[in-house]
């Protein structure tokens, strides 16, 4: 099975980190194909950036469809997720959606912890989009990120663990999701003393993709998420223009 | 007051039609500045197209901000609306959102009527996004559009009126919204026999923009819709890159 | 265009204040006709008072319909709003409903700030009635009103601004609505340092009325808000009895 | 125990019918005191009429409080219910609310059947007010009432039973509420063949009042339903003016 | 009227306490038949224990149906309530459901106070099951129970009253429900100074049962809660096996 | 990895069918350990039967915990699911919950199709329990099951496919779940012409269990689903009594 790991951010180090965790949890026969955006933004953190990067993700998928069995959109706010499900005939998963769905059977309420308040509104949109507000115990962030984004899992570790503990103890979260690509893998490092369950979004998204390939290899391609009819376009990247044109 | 009427579709005839209705309802001192997309799609009808056209809308706004007091995104599914509110320091309205909000004080339940089933899923997203499902009496469309999109208000008129009547009589809609840019102006043509209220989306969006300019000329620029910090980018249209870069 | 500004309270000073703000935002051709209740209560602040004052509002409208294009019910809890929409063939708006609807395109969450806790339950009913609980960041009031009600915008100014700041900072409100007729105009006085958007309810209600006159001059008169058949009555004010009797 | 049965309609025959059913289900020591409105409308069927009749109900209660232990507002849409709970220090129940609450432990979904479509919107408000939309299987009415309102239980009996059967069979209702004062007692006449449970609103309201007198004899008089401070008024019926004035 | 008071816990002292309160509020002709579980747990406090004790409750009902008019499941989380309604042709009430329903006409928001945090999740399930989250002001418990469970109404009295006061003052509860069988009767002991309404669950459940016997003596036996067809079983207590087998 | 496939029904043929599908989708290293109930009912189809069979499932798990990594409760209504999550320190999944969660990323609305109307109410409870009513397109069943339950996938095949087609075409379902253990495997047999996605519940539950073992091997054991303290019991199966006693 070949899964495209589509990082719509331009930071290669982030893709590497995500791919490493993805490979650790993937089944033996699964090949992870990491892709890094070549235009857009170094790191997306808002709805306006996600509007643009979601379109970039569609280009990246269209240009690498050959032989792919599934797609993971590897940015926590899931830019372009619904559009990709509409457009491509294979399963597409997103880090935020997959992590929240994995949290449901593991507890009654989940929290999200991330490293900067800048992404709060965008992340909260994902909770709303899935209709999970009744199960959501809140978002906790530090006042600001410290140091380079790619390093926060190391440099801000203590702060992030404290936020997760506060989510468990004060917000009554049963599950904590460490949201944001730079925190990939961090959930697996919580020890047995951690008083709630920690969920890793990229791991959840990869395993959900593997599951969907077995359950529904053609993806979500009919009815409400039907592929629109072929349509001419101007200015799109060639593979996407071809795909959307019905080619 | 200067309002940008941003049509993220590439069809000039559609912009002309929208601008004509906009000018008819605008207050004496309001100048309507119509803009038509120069790339993207002739006519958007799906989430994947809206993902791309929403980014195009951001470019169009960034390139024409000078002297503008408000923006109307002139496509019924409101592509890029939330992103634009985040990014620009002036009021931004959308045809779907404004039409639904205008419907609320005019009845208990509203319906949407449009000319093709292809846009159903995308339009329903707008209802969900505003949390208006409890007030929504449903969407009615013909089995397929007939003839050129730009002409449907004329060619499909009888069909569309029949759908509106069915919405009122069978679905208990008090208000019918004629959704989709090609139907601009049609609501004003329903006679006194029409058994419910018909709402015109572009008129609603323009007048809502005028109202917001008076109430909150800086737009929705703080808190949950705060403008993200300046950020470098690659491949964006120059004015948008400059704006998002903090320039 | 002639808009009845119906103050169902008996305090003339309050009507004057409301009319002044209304005239400031109304379009050039709009005439504001202020009306003050001649029976009922000096100032409504509860559901039981609103039950009675809502009926008074209906009388006031019925007695002044001649030549009117729209009605604004000028008390924040919107007494008699739904009944008036049912009964009269022209657009009717309310301060609470219009303010909350204006808040929606300006932010993700809104708060209400008022000058006394006595009106809390009644005001919260308005939030529920519009189904806006998911967008509501809470109500903040001082422990008690200070001095004459008509003067609180001046005497309690500092306290009210502090409550608005707390709503923005602690409750994550993007928009603050200053609720209650005695606070009319206050939102326009917040300076550029104010960290969120302030919305003025009477301004919103007047401009919404202007908009609805253009969109649907006959008001919300069919379907779920249909005018009931003519019916005999005993003890009603003459113009209302005549109107409800089908006259 | 003395229960005021407050009919805010002016039709004495309706009060008699309601009182007869109330006395049939009341506990041995319970005295039913029927009151008929002396002004307002012969029969309320809309929100505008209920706005006025709810104020009439408050007058009727204020004028007959002496020795009363509880109040039943004996019109199906519960005019003035929340206001009465705020104002008076004893339990107050309403026919619609009590019937819907009695339906909950008797089935998963309930329907309302009534004799005229004119009351539909008003009755649906009661469902919304209790937040019971998820348990509501719908409202069924004939196209129009036939004959004098006071006689419909007899003249329209077959039609009404057919509507109840349709609610059970087509709408999957487990419980049918016969709504509207003229149908009082009808639920008790459904035979053992009736395929779902029929609930009588006035019976439910009287027994709920008896229960609340034992559980909370002071009624709902604090917090969110606190009695407003005494306030001067003009034009109110004397006992109500005295009561609201703090007398 | 004969009401089975089914305590699915094995503690006789608790049954005695519940029966005493039940008899105090029951109507003159009502006979309360208390039953104590002979297997299962001394005191249920979790979903897993309720899964088992709910089945025990079904056995207890099936073995004592002869001559019974209604059943009260006398444990606050209502174990087996929905199953019992499905299975038996008479009204069945539960302490949690009945208390919450009694709270609704007595205030806008209710809180639950209990003596141990161990039951929190289970009790919160009851709130969700009735769809009452919008009316729920929260659950307050001490950090841990003190002394024998059967005595907590006495030994922890001051703590529990303080929690109730905090619910009223800090959480804006209008009604406080003292949840948990060992607190039966406590609500009636709150003095006139208590700033909100206190509701006793066993009293509410018994009076609700009396009411339902009059409204619908056959219970909730059709449609969505229809009795399943007779079915063979292995290992069930004989009367339950017989009842479920169609005997 | 060792997964207990716990069939709380007593029909061995059903267990065999479920185990066959489970083994087909399980990862290479996964061992499926099928268990069939030895008491309870041949086939559960109601809430009352599920109340009892859920307790049986707890016994089956407690008696086979040794070496197990996860549990699948192999009956579509998920009897005992929440209780098992509370009680055991490993991931527990259920067929209904897993199937509905797998449906979410595959479409906007899902339907359930099953072979008998008898299970409707019980199945609908699962939809409510996950809060998925807004995504639910309805349940379709034939008027009655035909022939032995274990054979319905063959004998009723055409009827069931027709119901699935009706769900897709008339109810606008994007995903159809074939609910009920006797239909295990059927979803995989829908051909490429099937106009929506078909999801197999046992496959979804097994793969979800595999995923959760990797994400959170200790299961949902803290916070809102915390294991209750050890407690004495009477009459429970020995391994369950020991487990619940803290042994």
UniProtKB/TrEMBL annotation, chains A, B, C, D, E, F:
It holds the Pfam family Asp_Glu_race. GO terms for molecular function: amino-acid racemase activity. Belongs to the HyuE racemase family. This is Asp/Glu/hydantoin racemase. It comes from Albimonas donghaensis.
């Amino acid at each position: 099975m070949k899964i495209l790991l589509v990082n719509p951010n331009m930071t290669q180090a982030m893709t590497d980190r995500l791919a490493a965790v993805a490979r650790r949890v993937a089944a033996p026969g699964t090949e992870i194909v990491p892709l890094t955006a070549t235009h857009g933004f170094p790191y997306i953190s808002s709805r306006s950036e996600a509007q643009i990067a979601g379109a970039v993700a569609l280009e990246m998928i269209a240009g690498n469809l050959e032989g792919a069995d599934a797609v993971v959109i590897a940015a926590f706010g899931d830019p372009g997720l619904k559009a990709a499900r509409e457009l491509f005939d294979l399963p597409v998963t997103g880090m935020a959606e997959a992590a929240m769905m994995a949290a449901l059977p593991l507890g009654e309420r989940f929290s999200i912890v991330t490293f900067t308040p800048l992404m709060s509104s965008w992340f909260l949109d994902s909770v709303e989009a899935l209709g999970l507000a009744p199960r959501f115990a809140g978002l906790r962030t530090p006042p600001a990120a410290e140091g380079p984004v790619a390093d926060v899992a190391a440099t801000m570790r203590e702060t992030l663990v404290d936020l997760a503990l506060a989510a468990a103890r004060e917000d009554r979260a049963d599950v904590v999701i460490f949201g944001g690509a730079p925190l990939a893998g961090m959930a697996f490092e919580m020890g047995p003393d951690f008083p709630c369950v920690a969920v890793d979004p990229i791991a959840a998204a990869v395993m959900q993709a593997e599951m969907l390939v077995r359950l529904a290899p053609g993806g979500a391609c009919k009815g409400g998420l039907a592929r629109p009819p072929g349509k001419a376009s101007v200015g799109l990247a060639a593979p996407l223009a071809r795909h959307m044109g019905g080619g």
